Amino acid sequence: MIRPATKDDLSAIDYIYNQAIYAGFCTAHLHPVDEQERRAWFKDHSEHKYPIYVYENDGEVLGWAALSPYRKGREALRETAELSYYVDFKHHGQDIGTQLVQHCLDECSKLNKRVLIAIIIDGNDASIGLLEKFGFSEWGYLPETIKYEGEVRGQRYMGKVVE
Q1: What are the tens digits of pLDDT across the range 101-126?
Q2: How far apart are CA 44 and CA 110, in angstroms?
Q3: Which has the closest alpha carbon to 103: 42, 55, 160?
């Protein structure tokens, strides 16, 4: 079941996100996110404008997705959101990411979001493939912007107009 996230979900969201940090090249963070950082992030989201969703099964959060402001504070971009999604590594390959992305796309008209952008680190072929399955295409590329343990990679901006 996919539902809006609550503050009670933050520890599960952190756990899943920190898995991606430890794996490397899934996010640009290098150190685990702590509770204080996550609470500030959570406050920047609202169910009716920039929601966070969790995929829950038998009371356990297995994945999450968020629509976040793209270039916060720039009013002409208010109909554009950045899409992020993460799935517990133990549950990869179970279509949880697919369901989360589909849910976000389905909610866009209600949220007055016309454009979604996802920023993917080179080499994350699973995320690129998932987004392409939903009609996202590469809208931009920033070479050599990520450096992790001495390895340099670029970022792909994947976009889709959802109206």
Answers
A1: 999 999 999 999 999 999 999 989 99
A2: 19
A3: 55
Residue 37, C-beta contacts closer than 8 angstroms, at least 6 positions apart: none
How long is the chain? Answer: 163
Residue with the two structure tokens 């720039």: 74
Which phi-psi region, left, alpha or beta, contains residue 95 (left: φ > 0; alpha: ψ -120 to 50)? left
3-state secondary structure the chain: CEEECCHHHHHHHHHHHHHHHHHCCCCCCCCCCCHHHHHHHHHCCECCCECEEEEEECCEEEEEEEEEECCCCCHHHCCEEEEEEEECHHHCCCCHHHHHHHHHHHHHHHHCCCEEEEEEECCCHHHHHHHHHCCCEEEEEEEEEEEECCEEEEEEEEEEECC
Stated pTM of the model: 0.93
151: pLDDT strictly greater than 90: no
pLDDT score of 54: 98
